[in-house]
Amino acid sequence: MDLTFTPQEEKFRSELRGWLDANIPAAWRDPSFWRSVSDDEGFELRRDWERRKHDAGFAGIAWPTEYGGRGGTPGMKAIYDEEMALAHAPQSANALGLTFLAPTVMAIGTDQQKRDIIGPMLRNEVIWCQGFSEPGAGSDLAALRTSGVLDGDEYVVNGQKIWTTNAMHGDKLFTLVRTEPGPGPGRQAEGGISPVGTNNDQSGALEAGTARRDPEARRSHGMHRGISMLLVDMRQPGVETRPLRQLSGASEFGEVFFTDARVKASECLGGVGNGWKTAMLLLSFERGASGISQYATYRRGYDEIVAAARRLGRDTDPTLRRELASRLVELECLRYHAMHVLTQVEQGRDLGSESSITKLQWSETYQKLFETFDHLLGLDGVVTSPVDGLDLASLQFEAFWTRSVTIWGGSSQVQRNIVAERVLGLPR
């Protein structure tokens, strides 16, 4: 494991840090600012921010220059992630497209798809959503029912997706659709998985399905045949979106309904019937050095929780102090693991199923951190009003959010099955 960055990478850090200091308004660094603006206004601010980052050369850090990227190293991308977190920079308005779709298009897209998708996405001209989960197909994603029927040179799409991030603001959607008959509603192909996770647009169900049996055997049973990844225009009459209100009051997710929506046959990524394989490739790009930005973000949250404990007079409580000490150890373990992953990526190693270890570690570390925050506040943790005159609303909202992190992106149960079977080689 290499804990250092090259001189070139540190020079990039200084350049990026200077630009962030000069371009992030002071008000944005206060979490209460984002609570004071509407969802629509906040989204447009973040969208414009992404455009300015692109214009300054701080977008697509590790993308090839031929696709508009900076052509940087994995270490530079890790530094970018870390510095964005440390600077309290706004969250990306196009994260799913930039993280998942663009690298997939670079790898297997047609020349036309590369021209049409990558540049506009990098400039934030087109916001992409991900449509995988359905009301009856989350962890058992192969049971999806949304259909696409070929009509001339277009597919006619009918069905529903759920837990779609940015559904209310999205321009286009990359989604899994059954373009050929499959196992059918209510039936599960032989050897299929049980719904032990959740419906979510970033579901780890794909890995879970792969973990349950040999890939060739799975294909022979037809469980994943007939699924294609279509690129759908969300701004057409046949697509309706509805917001889903979360515990925190936000509506980050939405439902998407298709009623005779039209998709050109050329807007199929990876080939007709190859949707499962394409989706597996797409999700593989979630990996890499993301744990470094997560560490920076969670460590900042830890420091804020410690500061709150002091101001509330709880910093001498021996039980809370032991708990906070445990959380700090877990955070530092996350940091070292993130650096280990970065080292492997720089050496060109394909982490494969080992990435499930990363998902388990960061999600459970994050959730435990805010369980400690809940212990600090007691019943005051379930409201978002000041506690003894102290405004902790941002931490309280974050505590609500952390309840979900061991579910989306592949539930902890699913990830443990993957690690046990595909990393450790344990019997099913």
Characteristics:
428 residues, alpha+beta, Butyryl-Coa Dehydrogenase, subunit A, domain 1, Butyryl-CoA Dehydrogenase, subunit A, domain 3, four-stranded antiparallel beta sheet, globular
Protein architecture, described:
The strands form two sheets. A four-stranded mixed sheet has the order 1-4-5-8. Strands 2-3-7-6 form a four-stranded antiparallel sheet, with no helix packed on it. It has 428 residues and is of the alpha+beta class. Helix content is 47%, strand content 13%. The chain is built from 14 helices and eight strands.
Brief summary of the model shown:
It is built from 14 helices and eight strands.
Strand content: 5-15%
CATH hierarchy: architecture of the largest domain: Beta Barrel
**Helix content bin:** 40-55%
CATH H-level superfamily title of the largest domain = Butyryl-CoA Dehydrogenase, subunit A, domain 2
**Number of domains in the coordinates?**
3
Structural class call reads alpha+beta
Mean pLDDT: 85
CATH level 3 topology of the largest domain: Butyryl-CoA Dehydrogenase, subunit A, domain 2
Q: N-to-C SSE series?
A: HHHHHHEEEEHHEEEEHHHHHH
**pLDDT < 50 runs, ≥5 residues:** 184-221
Largest sheet: 4 strands, mixed
| Largest beta sheet: strand ordering | 1-4-5-8
Count every helix, treating DSSP H or I runs of 4 or more residues as helices: 14
Radius of gyration: 22 Å
